[in-house]
Amino acid sequence: MQVSKNISLKPYNTFSIDVRAARFAVFENIDEARELLKVQRPTTNAQAVLILGGGSNILFTQNINGLVLKNEISGIEKIKEDNDHVYIKAGAGVNWHRLVIHCIENNWAGLENLSLIPGNVGASPMQNIGAYGIEIKDVFHELEAFHINDQQLLTFNVGDCEFGYRESVFKRKYKNEFIITSVTYRLNKIPVFNTSYGAIEQELEKMGIKELSIKAISQAVINIRSSKLPDPAQIGNAGSFFKNPEIEKSQYQQLKVTFPAIIGYDLPNGNVKLAAGWLIEQCGWKGYREGDAGCHNRQALVLVNYGNATGEQVYSLSEKIINSVKEKFNVILEREVNTI
Ligand SMILES: Cc1cc2nc3c(=O)[nH]c(=O)nc-3n(C[C@H](O)[C@H](O)[C@H](O)COP(=O)(O)OP(=O)(O)OC[C@H]3O[C@@H](n4cnc5c(N)ncnc54)[C@H](O)[C@@H]3O)c2cc1C
After folding, report:
1. N or C terminus: which one in the chain shows less Cβ crowding within 10 Å?
2. Of 56, 168, 218, 240, which residue is the catalytic one?
3. For the chain, what percentages of helix, strand and coil (3-state, to nearest 5) are there?
């Protein structure tokens, strides 16, 4: 375990923002994390420690004066099974897509719609990652998390995590309190195919798939994502910068009168979810660039760093977008990306 001082975090975040960490270390198991926290924690304040996974859902707007701990706990194992399910436990540092591929190769179904999401296993329950009609909460069994101050390892089941749309207790109530060390997923032995969302069916048809399989669905999702989303290796970004906002049905009906093309999806609670990308596009931001910070020219929901943007510049652009959407539609956009 080596603690580096004053290092650039540019290689460690997909936005490629060049801030510095006063101290940075990698840990591969709980004992190493415990040691690093004991030796390196400058104060008793847990906020002085930042846990980093793949850095694909973070916007750094300042240097980090405390300790950045990169979670590299590895390992994927089947811990139990019953007639219908297998329970797969993965270390928090396992690359998410690698886990998805591993499960597909073993015919364990449930993660295929979540193919190619960047980042690591440990962050998957943080914001209840989701795509193409599936969220982590649908396949989640339990997780283990290490309390930074109490130094205890606790188990959280699905109820404890209080999952919501890109939400969990770890993003709100217990923010910065825990290190998620492993996550166990409950996967299906007999797949339940979910192809109704987005363009999956069209893509499967284009691929000439005659017999549906989790592998084919995964490949369809990979194809769609690769054609739609900017690759962070080419252009800095953290995927969708904003959440799709939820509004009351009455407000939606009023908006529909003024903006007949507005896109909304009915929710089980009676509210309506709007497409944030559409709102942003209507305000004229798609393709907009301010220095090296910009709004992607194909995906208005994705803010980008063309090279040397600072986190503050990206944040300031996001602020302008929020204000203009509020002004035009009286709808408040919320950031999905964690700003630090
Ligand atoms: C091109 C692109 C496409 C994307 N598409 C999607 C998508 O379809 N759906 C979706 O949901 N997300 C998407 N994302 C966002 C991102 O990939 C996910 O949120 C992912 O789960 C983040 O994982 P990470 O390891 O990179 O987390 P990081 O960015 O490293 O961390 C995110 C937050 O979690 C905390 N954290 C990370 N690991 C731990 C841990 N082990 N214990 C405690 N706290 C931790 C960090 O402190 C931070 O607050 C996309 C991002 C990109 C760049």
Report:
1. N
2. 240
3. 30, 30, 40
Q: What is the pTM of this model?
A: 0.94
Q: Residue 137 Cα, ligand 1 centroid: separation in angstroms?
A: 15
* Ligand 1 pocket test target in 57, 71, 165, 200 with most atoms within 8 Å of CB: 57
CB 324 within 8 A of CB 304: no
Distance 267 CA to ligand 1 centre (A): 25
Range 278-310 burial, b when 16+ CB lie within 10 A, else e: bbbbbbebbebeeebbbbbeebbbbbbbeeebb
For 41: left if phi > 0, alpha if psi spans -120 to 50, otherwise beta; the answer is beta
3-state secondary structure 185-203: EEEECCCCCCCCCCCHHHH
| Alpha carbon of 52 to ligand 1 centroid (Å) | 9
- Cβ of residue 64 lying under 6 Å from some atom of ligand 1: no
112 part of the active site: no
| pLDDT tens per residue across span 265-302 | 999 999 999 999 999 999 999 999 999 999 999 999 99
* Angle, CA of 63, 24 and 58, to the nearest 5°: 55
**Using one digit for the tens of pLDDT, what is the confidence trace for 7-40?**
999 999 999 999 999 999 999 999 999 999 886 5
DSSP secondary structure string for all residues of 138-177: GTEEEEEEEETTT--EEEEEHHHHT-BTTB-TTTTTTTTT
